[in-house]
Amino acid sequence: MPTVIVIGRFRFHSCSADFNEPAHIHISAPDGEAKFWLQPIRVAYSHGFRAKDLRTLDRLVRENQETLLEAWHEYFPE
What we know:
5 strands; alpha+beta; about 80 residues
């Protein structure tokens, strides 16, 4: 799975099997994983992360939305 960015303990990455889904990003850390849709930004699922972590992830996705979308479209050209 290609890593797009790493911020602190969070690794933002894509999964090659997800080409048929809307733009999204997977986020992994030692204590959890989540998937965020990128347009509009919202949590698709989360396992292991606390509410505080999800608020942090939501902020990070919003701050990096442009970069994450560019990486999505580069990895999954239309």
